[in-house]
Write a structure and sequence with these properties.
This protein is an alpha+beta fold. The protein is 25% helix and 29% strand. The chain has two helices and eight strands. The strands form two sheets. The protein has a six-stranded antiparallel β-sheet with strand order 1-6-3-4-5-2. A two-stranded antiparallel ribbon has the order 7-8.
């Protein structure tokens, strides 16, 4: 399960250096209001599913990087992230010109598609009934 908030975005308040590898952890600094909204959404999602994950997108109009949230402090406005997720690179980011947002990613959609196909195959039919009664077909 992933965490989503409609139209959540903010500006990076402090630049970060480039990194290599997707296990590199770094800290993003954002406004405390933005951090609190993100924390509230993560808390709600984790009440539904404890292993809910949050991926953020950094974008300066030229480069795009997907990062996975590890921890955050809404009071201080910092977000610890694992960099270079879903095959993206980890360039340097400058303060104020970098937007941090919560977006649907290609990796999420691929995983969702594979999950639906797997459930349909397990069910032995081309139709799957969703949690809210919606009919999903393959």
């Amino acid at each position: 399960m992933r965490v989503f908030i409609n139209n959540w975005s903010t500006k990076l308040l402090q630049g970060i250096s480039s990194a290599s590898g997707n296990a590199v952890m770094d800290t993003l600094y954002v406004s405390t209001a933005a951090a609190q909204a993100l924390k509230d959404a993560i808390t709600r999602a984790q009440q539904i599913r404890a292993d809910a994950q949050t991926y953020l997108t950094l974008d300066d109009g030229v480069n795009v990087e997907i990062v996975r949230v590890n921890n955050l402090d809404a009071v201080s406005g910092w977000i610890d992230v694992y960099r270079a997720q879903e095959g993206t690179a980890a360039p340097a980011w400058t303060a104020t010109s970098t937007t941090v947002s919560l977006r649907v990613t290609a990796g999420y959609l691929d995983n969702l598609h594979n999950d639906i196909v797997s459930r349909i195959a397990t069910n032995g039919t081309d139709v799957l009934i969703g949690a809210n009664g919606e009919v999903l077909t393959h």
